[in-house]
Every structure is written in structure tokens, then in C-alpha cells.
Amino acid sequence: MALTPRLDLRQSQSLVMTPQLMQAIQLLQMSNLELTAHIQKELESNPLLEQAGADTGAEDLVAHSDQMTNDQMSNEQANAGAADGQGTEDNAAPLDLADQMGEKAADHTEAINQDLDARLDNVFPDDNGPSNQNDGPQLNDPWMSTPTRNGGAAPDFDLEAVLAGEQSLSDHLEQQLSTAIAEPRGRIIGQFLINELDEQGYLKSDLSLVANRLGIERQEVEEALAILQTFEPCGVFARSLAECLALQLKEKNRFDPAIEALLDNLDLLAKRDFVALKRLCKVDDDDFAEMVAEIRALDPRPGSAFGHVTIQPVIPDVFVRQNNDGSWKLELNSETLPRVLVNRTYYATISKSTKDSQEKEFLVDCLQNANWLVKSLDQRAQTILKVATEIVRQQDAFFAYGVTHLRPLTLKMVADAISMHESTVSRVTSNKYMATNRGVFELKYFFTSAISATSGADSHSAEAVKHRIRQAIDQEDVKKILSDDALVTLLRAEGIDIARRTVAKYREAMNIPSSVQRRREKKAALG
Predict the structure, then answer these.
(1) pLDDT value for 117
(2) 0.85 cut: is pTM over it?
(3) Taking a C-beta distance cutoff of 8 angstroms, is the pair 495, 454 a contact?
(4) Is the previous residue joined to 233 through a cis bond, with omega within 30 degrees of 0?
């Protein structure tokens, strides 16, 4: 068979994951806080991007993500403004007032330098910044000068930052360390152990590993730890809950063999097995009640009173309101939608003065990235609204009647209804919240598995079954505690076909104790 050259034409399709496409996918699954941080980074790195404000010129507006507001301008008007020559040097914005003041201050400083035959940064180093580049202020220093956007310096003293700052647990312990341990070797060990504490004040590190990392004997670490455990707040540097409570009881001089036996069996106290505890502690009812009262008065988290990371409140992305006709109205939370603009006027001004090919390529990349970001933000907002609208349509009974009418819903059902992929719906519903007449819920809350019905009727959602289990347990009689088998019988009588292991799994997921523990707790509560 002879081999001869031949030219064939083939057509194929392939998906190329460009950086812009990857950015658009990442924007979908970001929460509003993560999106704000990402937009801030883009504003700092891209000179053609700016945040919409009250003073933003109409000629600078190209597009922004909040297309659902009435004050948005069209892209045609923005492009026409740039094409009419609005980006020329004659129409350039005047010099900023801060820049003018900076030039006058520089001229005045130079005049003083000539009169004194010296430099101000040498005569007054504290007022004009460090004279040596290596002697600059440390990070997180409230007294340092903060550079402004125009290159100047903010006031050196920030009284608000000093007064509003919270003292952390490590700062509080370091102050005590400087007076409790005089030897440098012991201070190094103490500082290392302070850095190993968690937010609650517990020491989770193994002392042998600490000794190996510091290259010392374990005994030295234990001696330093014994001193650190005397610091305030009492109970810090404990390696377990029992040790934390023991340190506080020793401080009150209330640590005796009976209390020690009680702390050694805290699991029985959590289970409210008082009979076994009284037998182990060898005390009567009055002494045992007094011991339990002392334990409850202690602080199991001694480090929580100090400054820590502030928990951000949940900010809804979608609002759901009921109309007069009973239908539901959805709207995006405009506060969580970043309003980002592309400044084409600035691009037209700069592009005319650039001669180097690398500079032109940089400006073109910035313009493309800015346009893609604005488009991605708009697409993200529309996708969130589209998915939320379908969720409300599918779960209409929940909004009208409550959690017992929550229907089984899967990502595929929503994806098929709105002609999207399941992965897109999954990304959109991650870390997104909906404010409804029944509270604020994560979008993933409405996706629940199905529990079959006994009579062949519509299936029940897992969340509705959980709610029914909790409702039955809350209404149970003290003399007739419902076991898992009794719950199965009750649910099947209501048309819910469920197995016992499923009931046990749902009960444990809701942190509801077993029937034996509930019976013991309720009897103890009645006295």
C-alpha cells in the first residue's frame, strides 16, 4: 500500500479555561464579603476601574453590575462620550486640591532647608518620618503615618485607632510574663506557649513537641507552664476542660478529692447521670448539689472575654416579599452588589500619550479585564436572581405555610427548569442568603432529600421530617418519653415512610439526646 500525503479538514469543539472565565466562575461562589474584598483588590491593581459614587461623571460610566436600578446609564451613551473627544488633555480634570497643597508644602519645606542649611527630616525625624529606611514603623502600629491615595501622608496620630482597639489575650498575658519570669530563657518558653494558645485560652500543643522544637527538656516546659497557669484570667493554659475548671477551683481554694472525682468524670455530668457521680464522689445529695453549683459558676472559656475576630452578621443577597395578590416579589440586595465602573475617559487620555508597546499592551489588558469584570458581576447578579426566583416558585408552600410544607428539591430540578448546569446552581447557592417572611435562610437550605410517603402521595422533604421529629419531642410527656421506635410509629401514622436508623440520624443531627437521657434530664428538672 503506497503512502501519499493528504489534506483533511476536521471540525471540533473544545472548552478553553481562560483566566477571565475562571474569574467569572469564582465570582459565582463568592459570598458578599468575599466579593467586596475581591473587588477592592481589583480596584487597587487596575487603574481603569473605579467604584461608583455620587461624584462619578456621566461620561465615565460604561457599565456596572447593578443594572436593576433606575439611575443606570446605557453603554451607548458612555461610548459616544468617549468618541466625541471627552478624553483630550484640554478637558482633563483639574489638579486635585491635595496635590496642590502637597506642591506648596514641598516648596515651603525646601525654603526652610535653605535657610537652616539643613534638612527637616534630619532636624525633626519624628515629624517627617524615619530618617533611615530601615527604622520605619512596624506593622499594625496605630501611631504610624498611613500613605494616602495621592502619595501624601495621613496624620501620624490616630486617636480613634488607639481608643477603639481591643486588648487581645496574648497582649494581656505578655504583660504578666514580663513581671512573672525574669530569666530570658524562661521568657522565650513562655512567649512560645502564649503563641500556641487558641482563642478560648486552651493549650492544645503537646509539651514533648514543644520541648523538641525549642531544643530543651520537657521539664523546663512544664515548669514554665506551671507559672503561666497562675496568670489571669484564671484557667488559661489548661490542656483540657477538667484542668481549666481545676485551676479555677484551686484559685478559690475549693479543690478537694470529691471535686477532683467529679472533674475526672465530666462525661457523666454531661449525661446527667447523678446517681453514678454521687457514688464516685462519695457525697450525699446536698453536697453534690453544692458541687454542681460551683462547677456551673466557673468559666469554661477564660480567653473569650478578650479581643478576637468579630463575627460578621449574615447579610441577605435576595429579599422576598409578598404582594397583595399573594404572589412573591424578589429583588436583589443593592447593598451587596458592587457598583464598578470602567473609566474610558482616563483610558483615552493615557493611550494617546503612550509610545512604548509594553505600556499599550498593559492598558489594553487592563481595559479587557475591567470590561470582563463588569460583565461577570452583572451576569452573577442575574444568575442569583434567576436561581432564587426558581427556588421561590418550587417552594411556594414553604413561604405560605411554613417548614412542614417544604418540598423535596434537588440541584438538578432547578438546573433543568432554568436551563443551567448543576454545578452553576451549586456555586450560586453557596454562601448566599435569602431574607423571607419566615427568617433568613441560606439558599442551600431549600434543597432537601425526599422521604417516601406510605400512601403513595407526594414525598416529604427531609427538613420537614426533622421539624416534625423536633416538634414531637418538644411536646412529649415526661412520663411517656418517645423512643426512636415510637417516633417511627408516629411518623408512619402521619404518612411518612421512614426507618428507625433515619430517625436516629436526624435526631443526632439536631443535637437531641436519646430517650434515656431525655427521661433522666426531665426527671432531674422536676426535682
Answers:
(1) 47
(2) no
(3) yes
(4) yes
Name 492's Cβ contacts closer than 8 Å, sequence gap at least 6: 454, 498
The domains of the chain, with CATH numbers, are 169-305 (no CATH), 450-526 (1.10.10)
| pLDDT, tens digit (0-9, with 9 covering 90-100), for 39-90 | 999 999 999 898 876 344 433 433 343 433 333 333 333 333 333 333 333 3
Q: Pull the grid cell for residue 363.
A: 492598558
344 compared with 156, residue with greater pLDDT: 344
Q: For residues 389 and 391, what is the distance between their CA atoms, to the nearest angstrom? A: 5
Taking the C-alpha atoms of residue 37 and residue 34, their distance in angstroms, rounded to an integer, is 5
How much helix, strand and coil, in percent to the nearest 5, is found in the chain?
55, 10, 40
How buried is residue 129: exposed, middle or buried, by Cβ count under 10 Å (0-12/13-18/19+)? middle
- The model's pLDDT over 214-269, given as tens digits with 9 standing for 90+, comes to 888 889 889 988 998 888 888 888 888 889 888 988 888 888 888 888 888 888 88
Sheet with 318-322, strands from edge to edge, namely: 328-332, 318-322, 433-436, 439-442
* Residue 431 CA from chain centroid, whole number: 9
CA gap 333, 322 in Å, rounded: 16
